[in-house]
Amino acid sequence: MLRYPKSGALLRELFVRLAAEIPWRQESIILYGKCHMQPRLLCWMGDPECAYRYSGILHKPQPWHPLVSGIRAHVEALAGARFNCVLLNHYRDGQDSMGFHADDEPELGAQPVIASLSLGAARAMHLRHRRDRALPTQKLVLADGDLLVMRGNSQCDWKHAIPKSRKALGPRINLTFRLIRFPSLT
Ligand SMILES: O=C(O)CCC(=O)C(=O)O
Ligand SMILES: [Fe+2]
Prior knowledge:
Layout: E1 2-3, H1 8-21, E2 28-31, E3 34-37, E4 41-46, E5 52-54, E6 57-59, H2 66-79, E7 85-91, E8 98-101, E9 114-120, E10 123-129, E11 138-142, E12 146-150, H3 154-157, E13 158-162, E14 172-178
Antiparallel strand pairs: 1-12, 2-3, 4-7, 5-6, 7-14, 8-13, 9-12, 9-14, 10-11, 10-13
The protein binds 2-oxoglutaric acid and fe (ii) ion.
């Protein structure tokens, strides 16, 4: 885990501006044939070729917001890797969440580097091994300014999630930077 090189006051300012200026959307997902709203706000941003197919729909990325390109430059330097897109997630309170998944889309190639910056309220990430059920779930607290870099076999070996919390938690914004190596052309 790395730290984003900004003071608490600057992190707070980043949070406030991102919350106000990003075109957040609440998207639906189809689960077992039923349409559900995702329990968080999100925004897909990146280079124009970074469209991705999800639930049968081709999602075009939003163009880079200058604030987010600035963050990307810092994150690339810290992670020592290059990124061409980012998924921004806005968890409004402890009831917003993300289910267990791995970021293992074929477009990302084998052993992708994924850099995830957290701003605002601290949330726990749970990590579950994909094959070895005897391994206990690992819990990682992601606090304001934490930069989690996942590399190597992390996506093929583990799934991760941000579970709901019963505690009254403030809002959190997470930026997950990725590199799409093989854009799907359809
Ligand atoms: O909010 C987080 O820390 C996790 C986000 C995540 O896993 C993702 O965007 O793929
Ligand atoms: Fe993820």
